[in-house]
Fold this sequence. Notes:
The chain is α/β, with parallel strands linked by helices. It has helices spanning 57-71, 79-88, 94-115, 119-122, 143-155, 169-183, 206-216, 233-242, 256-264, 280-293, 306-316, 345-348, 377-380, and strands at 4-24, 27-43, 48-53, 130-139, 160-164, 188-192, 223-225, 247-249, 270-273, 297-300, 324-330, 356-357, 360-362, 389-393, 398-402, 411-412.
Amino acid sequence: MSRIARVEPHLLTFPFPEPLKLNxxxxxxxxxxxxxxxxxxxxxxxxxxxxxxxxxxxxxxxxENIIGPWLTGKSLADPDALRVQFLLGPGQDPQVAKIYFTVxxxxxxxxxxAKGLPVSELLGGRVRDKIRLYGSAGMYMSPQGYADxxxxxxxxxxxxxxxxxxxxxxxxxEAVRLIRERVGPxxxxxxxxxxxxxxxxxxxxxxxxxxxxxxxxxxxxCWLEEPFTPDRHELYRALHEEDILALASGExxxxxxxxxxxxxxxxxxxxxxDIVCQGxxxxxxxxFTEIEKNDxxxxxxxxxxxxxxxAAAHIGICWPEHVVEWLEYPLYRKPGQKxxxxxxxxxxxxxxxxxxxxxxxxxxxxxxxxxxxxxxVIEKYPWKPGPWSTFTLIEPPGTWAVYNDHSVQWVVDx
Length: 414
C-alpha cells in the first residue's frame, strides 16, 4: 500500500517590473507582485499529487513543521480518514486545519491518480462535465476603460464579466451603464464592490449603497458582491429584504457558522468561497448541502493560478448547476490585450491550457486533477516576501496591506 514520503510547499512570486499604482475614491492602491504556492505530496512509489496553496510564509511554515511531518508515513488509501485523524490531533487548531484542507487537495490528486480516476469521482462523483466561468478583471479605471475591457472579455468568449468599482458612486454607476451598453444583454455582469468599504472615512454609507443598488438594478446585474464590510451581516440582511437585486458574499468568512448565518439570514443570494483559503473540499461539500437546502446558489472565488481553478472545478461538477453555478476565472493580460495586469505564473504553472468552450470549463476525466503541472515555475519564480498589495487611505491617513489569505480583509502594514 502506497504511503506518503514527504510534503513540499513551494512559495512562488511574480514581481511586477514596476509597482502598479491605481488611484481610487478612497486613496491609492499599489500592487507590487503576485504570489502563489505549489504544494507537492510525494508517495513512497514516486507518484506526486499537487495542490494550490496560500502564497504566505505562515502557511508554508505550518506545512513544513506540522502538517508535513504528521502526514509522512501515513497511508494514502483514504484522504477522508486522514482528515478525521488530523482534526483530532494538530487540526484542533483552526488555523492549522485551514492549511491542512489545502494540502488535502494534493492528497486527493495523488489518491485519484493511483486509482486511475479523476478527483471528482473521489468527491462523490460528477453529475456534469463542465462549469460556467466568469471572466474576472476590472480594477479602478475610467467608466470607458471598464467598457473597453468588458468588450475584450466578451470577445475572448466569456459569457460573464466581473469588475471592481471604487471611483466614486456616480462614476461607478456610469461604468456599469457603459458596460451594459457596450456588451448588450447577452453578457452577465457582476459588480465586486469590496472597495466601497476600504476607503476609511470615504467609504460608502449604507444609504449610498442602497441608492446605488437601486440604480444598478436597472442594468440587469447578475449580482452585487460585498457592498458592505463582510462581518456586517445585518446590513446584508436589511438590503436583501429590500429585494432590489441579487447579493453575493462569503470569501471573507472565517468559519462555517459565518457561512450558515449568511444563508439563514437570509443575507445573500450567492454564497462564495475560496478552496485555498476557506476549508478546501471538506468545507465545500458541507456548504453545498446547506446551499441546496436553502435554495441558494454558489459561486467559487478564485484569484490565483489555473491549478486553483481546476482544483475547484472538480468539486463544483459534483453538484448540479442550480447549486454550484459559477467559477471565477481571473483574466491576466497577454500581449495585445488591454486586461488588468500580467501574471504569467498563473498559466505557466500548467503545461497545457485548460479546455474552455463557449465560456465553460470542460473538466478532464483523466486521473487526478487531469492536468500536468509545470514544475519549472519553482525555479523561475522564486519567493519574494512582503504583501502583494497595499491600500493607502486619504481619510484617515494610513496604509493597510493585503496578503494571499482571501479570508483576511487586510492588516496594518508595518
